């Protein structure tokens, strides 16, 4: 059975790659490719079953409202999620039984594995920090991937009974130690020439471990986007992270 897929944000860097990936997938049909100013009614008119939403934090909530209100599953990589926004998404899903929403901080399989490796390693090291590096057009800092990675690390440390990290003897300019995400320092770099990169550094007695992932082209996100589109109908409700669709 062919899956009818629409892409919202089809003119963007990742969206344009998603359009090509859906078109090339033998089990999918691209029924709509919507850019800025497009009418979302094209989705329902085309009979879309899944919408791949790759836009901007200013647009994502309205897109979710329309799609979920019109019987369309959603796979989104848009960032800027807060607890308030997640609550709104859950409210929308409560009115749309049977529909699924995947919010993926990252669609790269390598990035997801890096997050998993960091989560596994976190319990064995005294200290850990996250460094993420992106292009200058990145809308948020730190990235959704880095925030999610830090949250997973913090949860693993807490489960292992490790104390919170702190720097009692460190002094300097405010912000020099990065953002604090559940007790894990997260540093954001924005630089022309970069795409999407993350490094998790863990330190213990006499040793360090570095887990690094680099996306050098937007095509690296396409296998994850296609996987999300294929799996979302089997996961009604809210799913945070593509890792839940992988056998990890």
TrEMBL record:
Q: InterPro entries attached here?
A: DapB_C, DapB_N, DapB_N_CS, DHDPR_bac, NAD(P)-bd_dom_sf
Transmembrane regions: none
Q: In which pathway does it act?
A: Amino-acid biosynthesis; L-lysine biosynthesis via DAP pathway; (S)-tetrahydrodipicolinate from L-aspartate: step 4/4
Which ranges carry the Dihydrodipicolinate reductase C-terminal domain?
110-246
Active-site residues, Swiss-Prot/TrEMBL: 134, 138
Question: Could you say which enzyme class this protein belongs to?
Answer: oxidoreductase
Known EC number(s)?
Answer: 1.17.1.8
List of residues binding (S)-2,3,4,5-tetrahydrodipicolinate: 135, 144-145
Q: Which CDD domains has this protein been placed in? A: DHDPR_N
Q: Report the SUPFAM superfamilies cross-referenced here.
A: Glyceraldehyde-3-phosphate dehydrogenase-like, C-terminal domain (SSF55347), NAD(P)-binding Rossmann-fold domains (SSF51735)
One Pfam family this sequence matches: DapB_C
Catalytic activity annotation: (S)-2,3,4,5-tetrahydrodipicolinate + NADP(+) + H2O = (2S,4S)-4-hydroxy-2,3,4,5-tetrahydrodipicolinate + NADPH + H(+); (S)-2,3,4,5-tetrahydrodipicolinate + NAD(+) + H2O = (2S,4S)-4-hydroxy-2,3,4,5-tetrahydrodipicolinate + NADH + H(+)
- GO cellular component terms listed in the entry, alphabetical order: cytosol
Q: Which UniProt keywords apply?
A: Amino-acid biosynthesis, Cytoplasm, Diaminopimelate biosynthesis, Lysine biosynthesis, NAD, NADP, Oxidoreductase
The residues listed in the UniProt record as binding NAD(+), with positions renumbered to this chain, are: 9-14, 77-79, 104-107
User: Which stretches make up the Dihydrodipicolinate reductase N-terminal domain?
Assistant: 4-107
Please name the GO terms of the biological process aspect recorded for this protein, alphabetically.
diaminopimelate biosynthetic process; lysine biosynthetic process via diaminopimelate
Q: Where in the cell is it found?
A: Cytoplasm
Q: Which PROSITE patterns match?
A: DAPB (PS01298)
Q: What does this protein do?
A: Catalyzes the conversion of 4-hydroxy-tetrahydrodipicolinate (HTPA) to tetrahydrodipicolinate.
| NCBIfam families in the cross-refs | dapB
HAMAP family tied to this protein: DapB
Question: Which family does the UniProt entry place this protein in?
Answer: Belongs to the DapB family.
Report quaternary structure and partners: Homotetramer.
Protein name as annotated: 4-hydroxy-tetrahydrodipicolinate reductase
Species of the source: Kitasatospora setae (strain ATCC 33774 / DSM 43861 / JCM 3304 / KCC A-0304 / NBRC 14216 / KM-6054)
* Gene name linked to the record: dapB
């Amino acid at each position: 059975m062919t899956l009818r897929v629409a892409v919202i944000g089809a003119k963007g860097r990742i969206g344009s790659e998603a359009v090509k990936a859906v078109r090339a997938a033998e089990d999918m049909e691209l029924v709509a490719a919507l850019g800025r100013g497009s009418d979302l009614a094209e989705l329902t008119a085309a009979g879309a079953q899944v919408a791949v939403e790759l836009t901007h934090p200013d647009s994502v909530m309205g897109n979710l409202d329309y799609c979920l209100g019109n019987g369309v599953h959603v796979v989104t990589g848009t960032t800027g999620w807060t607890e308030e926004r997640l609550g709104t998404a859950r409210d929308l899903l409560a009115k749309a039984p049977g529909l699924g929403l995947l919010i993926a901080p990252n669609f790269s399989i390598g990035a997801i594995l890096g997050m998993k490796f960091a989560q596994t390693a976190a319990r064995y090291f005294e200290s850990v920090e996250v460094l993420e590096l992106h292009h200058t057009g990145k809308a948020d800092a730190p990235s959704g991937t880095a925030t999610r990675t830090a949250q997973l690390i913090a949860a693993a440390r807490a489960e292992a009974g490790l104390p919170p990290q702190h720097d009692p003897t460190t002094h300097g300019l405010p912000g020099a130690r990065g953002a604090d995400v559940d007790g894990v320092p997260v540093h954001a770099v924005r630089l022309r020439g970069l795409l999407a990169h993350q490094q998790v550094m863990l330190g213990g007695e006499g040793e360090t471990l570095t887990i690094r992932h680099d996306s050098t082209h937007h095509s690296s996100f396409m296998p994850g986007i296609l996987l999300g589109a294929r799996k979302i109908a089997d996961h009604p409700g809210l799913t945070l992270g593509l890792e839940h669709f992988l056998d990890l």
